[in-house]
Amino acid sequence: MSKIDFTKEYFSMKESDAIEYAKTVLKFFNEDAVLTCKEIGDGNLNYVFRVVEESTGKSVIIKQAGPEARISSDIKLSTDRNRIESEILKLQYELAPGLVPEVYHYDAVMNCCSMEDLSDHVILRTALLQHRKFPLLAEHITTFMVNTLLLTTDVVMEHKEKKALVKSYINPELCEISEGWVYTFPFSDNEMADAFEKIKPFAKEFLWEDKAFLLETAKLKFEFMSNAQSLIHGDLHSGSLFVKEDSTKIIDPEFAFYGPAGYDIGNVIAHLIFALANAEAVMADGKEKEGYIVWVKESIANVVDMFKDKFNKLWDEKVTERVAKYEGFKEFYLNSILRDTAAVAGLELCRRIIGLAHVKDITTIEDVEKRAAAEKFCLTVGKALIMDRESFLDGKKYLDLIEA
């Protein structure tokens, strides 16, 4: 019999609680199973427990959302994000089979969900920091994005059904984080901006004092808040992907809501550019570096071009809205997504450099001069993507900018 009643009220679980929860609530293991548990969460918001039966290798992941961020008790959050994540993962599992983990159970009292253990995979950011190549990454991630983004739009869905999803996944607390941390705080010299001291003068002149640039970021913020286009992942960076040679799994859609489709695509591209900047700075010159950089650049271009190709094919197969079949509308619609893609890639490149949420791709560059150069590169590419976003309609355009 359980020593703890998990059905009455929420409390923050410890590793021992997660073991008992796996046995008595999930009934994932036999009552007499000998289990171990480790809290493996390395994000800013949640706690992630891996429970394992060592004798059989059977395992499960339990992810619990608390009422405040683990990085700061001042950041209050709705625990409804765990429901959103659980339901979104189930929906994505249907739309993009094999590309997300399977969800087993959602618990509204304990604000947690249990899901497939992906310990045979590695977090993509970790692998990129080791300069490993994954030939199927672009193929997998573009299939995921096309299926989850296009198939949840008014172009395909019955409109009342789509509006019901908009209502169900409104997600105001997590959207507020994105509105602040991505679109607002990084673009002025304030306590919520955090620029590397060596590039701060550059950031001030190049971004914070450029009124034309700031105007564009304001336009993009309001597009993010008002364009309920697709059911987006909302945080699709290299820390939200598990990979191995023949598999890619997308995790952590707790920021999901109905927003501009280009938001997800732009995030993927930006974090590949971070990987490129890291490799340029820290890898020794030679064939290994050359080969890795070629693969990253190809992946950047392929994300754009494969997405376009798959989008066009899936549109022709799945479009239901009558007016969306008018000649020229598909091209107009896709180009608007590609414009948003470039803008978001630019925002992400900037905000990870001069905002609070940095990336290890850049912060682990030990040589101060090389880190400063990498950061200026990211800010320069980011600004160009924002200011000239209408032009980035294919992968070659991104590579031309990076080369320039």
UniProtKB/TrEMBL annotation:
<dbReference type="InterPro" id="IPR009212">
    <property type="entry name" value="Methylthioribose_kinase"/>
</dbReference>
<dbReference type="InterPro" id="IPR011009">
    <property type="entry name" value="Kinase-like_dom_sf"/>
</dbReference>
<comment type="similarity">
    <text>Belongs to the methylthioribose kinase family.</text>
</comment>
<protein>
    <recommendedName>
        <fullName>S-methyl-5-thioribose kinase</fullName>
        <ecNumber>2.7.1.100</ecNumber>
    </recommendedName>
</protein>
<keyword id="KW-0808">Transferase</keyword>
<dbReference type="GO" id="GO:0005524">
    <property type="term" value="F:ATP binding"/>
</dbReference>
<dbReference type="GO" id="GO:0046522">
    <property type="term" value="F:S-methyl-5-thioribose kinase activity"/>
</dbReference>
<keyword id="KW-0547">Nucleotide-binding</keyword>
<comment type="subunit">
    <text>Homodimer.</text>
</comment>
<keyword id="KW-0418">Kinase</keyword>
<keyword id="KW-0067">ATP-binding</keyword>
<dbReference type="InterPro" id="IPR002575">
    <property type="entry name" value="Aminoglycoside_PTrfase"/>
</dbReference>
<dbReference type="Pfam" id="PF01636">
    <property type="entry name" value="APH"/>
</dbReference>
<feature type="domain" description="Aminoglycoside phosphotransferase">
    <location>
        <begin position="38"/>
        <end position="273"/>
    </location>
</feature>
<dbReference type="GO" id="GO:0009086">
    <property type="term" value="P:methionine biosynthetic process"/>
</dbReference>
